[in-house]
Design goal:
- By secondary structure, the protein is α/β, with parallel strands linked by helices.
- The chain has 10 helices and 13 strands.
- Strands 1, 2, 3, 4, 5, 6, 11, 12 and 13 form a 9-stranded mixed β-sheet that branches.
- Helix 7 runs parallel beside helix 9.
- The radius of gyration is 19 Å and the shape is globular.
Length: about 325
Amino acid sequence: MREESKNLAVVILNWNGKNWLQKFLPGVVRFSDDAEIYVIDNHSTDDSVEFLKQKFPSVKIIINDKNYGFAGGYNEGLKKINAEYYCLLNSDVEVSENWTEPILNLFKIDSAISAIQPKILSFNNKQYFEFAGAAGGLIDNLGYPYCRGRIFDDLEEDKGQYNDETEIFWASGCCFFIRCNDFWEQNGFDERFFAHQEEIDLCWRLINSGKKVFYTGKSEVYHVGGGTLNKQSAQKTFLNIRNNLSMMLKNLPFPKLIWVIFFRLCLDGVASFYFAYKNGFSHLWAVARGHFGFYAQLPGTLKRRQKHQKSHYYQTKWLIFKHFLGGKN
């Protein structure tokens, strides 16, 4: 049974993250007077739960019976939380004073806005944007995700250039605000993804159903990044490759779908040698595993295709070529 409804639920998914909770949860509690705070514990093996009970009695704890990953972990835990809005917040995020107010104001202004993210800066270098979200997510015509303020591994310095409020394509999962009803109308995250790009997939589904995704530069948070899975992890490469292909198959319109996925499969093969050179042979194998994983998911992915897909979904074309060959950021 869900508990009594609150306007905003700030929900942190935890897996063996006591150190992050110890560091950042006090700030969340301090600066979130307008919210109920929850921690969903994804079957941790450290003493996170006991720590929360002793040090943060005001924080509500939901315990999953196993580690469902990011996507499934939130889906399971959120079933027990009733609110008008969810904020899905990574445990390695520092929030700032009044960080929720601009988000809630945007939701009230436009009922078509389903999901919102704030400005996401690097905790370790607060003058620069952070990899996971920066100033709002976009996508190119080949399905490569990027951000205002971050293209692949290149990050911009924050000079106020993204202090706006604007429509984007995807909101970052590290600080992801969404209307509760819209989350469940889309059946939440795709649990098959386990982790990585599940928020892009969800935003794409929202947009295909006529909803909007927004960014506001009036709210700032600071993300450590890599707290659960390092950016150079071969497992992360595998998940990103598999999930990105499945996401495109679910959300791309015909006839673009066929040629885009074929072209991406070819580009992934080329990229695998670059990954192997840069990060080791395990990443080449991770790309191959990603393709096999995509093929294994084909029947379920096709069943999850929506009735309608918007034909224009991207903000730029051929990002990978413009960036790596043309040197454009």
